[in-house]
What does this fold into?
Amino acid sequence: MTFPSSINRTERLTAEEERDMARKIRAAEELALEAVETIEEAQEVLARRPERAERTRAGAVDRLEESVRLVQIAARKDPNLRENARKATNSWRKAEELRWRLAMSGRRIAHGEARKLAGPFMDEEDLVQEGYIGLLRAAKRFDPDRGIRFSTYARWWVRAQMTRAIDHTGRPVRLPGCAVEQTRNLRKAMKRFESMGVEYSIADLAEEVNIDKERAELLLSQGNTISLEQPVDEGPRPRPLDRFLSDEDAPQPDIEAIYSQELRRMENAFEHLLNERQRFVLTRRYGLNDGEFRTLSEVGKEMGLSRERVRQIEREALNRLRENSSIRSDSPA
It folds into this structure.
């Protein structure tokens, strides 16, 4: 994937330019779809239906991306598929480049929201990076036919990405993403009832968020700290959390075997999920080949890119690895 060497070169877009770029993205995606939809390796993925109704384009775009990747792999063995793979790859790269430009046209939103939300748990610079992730997610979902500007649509995604990151960082014990979202929705429901002057109970809040009453009570009881003496199970002899903490002096499993297995999985994920530039950044940053960690500036000098651009590529790669489950499976997706 080819991106501009600096995000600062991406200009702000007018409403018409935003819609025009979104339509170009869709046209490029349609060309990629035409190139792969008749190929057996892609048909199963494209025909896959989500368990719940999709409210955005993101699911269809993800399936198309996976289909293009599968066709690329199949073309290595079957020369007859190489032309389709080439067309699909070129069209997909074009769509990705346009999507990047659309997302970065709203970078001022990320900086503005970061200034508002910066605090003791996350500084402004880290929040800006989370904001860029939100912009990329918004660009993947943006529909120009809905009559709303991308800058307006993207602001919600930027803020949601930032607040989710703050929720995770602000807790000594990290909660699952679904629990964070449900807690936030419960507190929104509380504010809504209070603003209307309506009395409410935990059961009312749970019904509003569509979860069990017991789960609502648990989520609302969680603060930003957890006591080591807090019981973690039920029964006549509940055990506190500190009983489950690891003992550094206790015998450990064969660490080398675990590291070797995880490294093989990581290499497999790198090959199938990341492009060449993303692989290079992670490899150099974390010393995966030589054990020597490098700063963003050092990697940037090697690639001829700015420190900020290297940071963005690193975040994109890490985000892709986190979101794709194949890094924790025995075979690639």
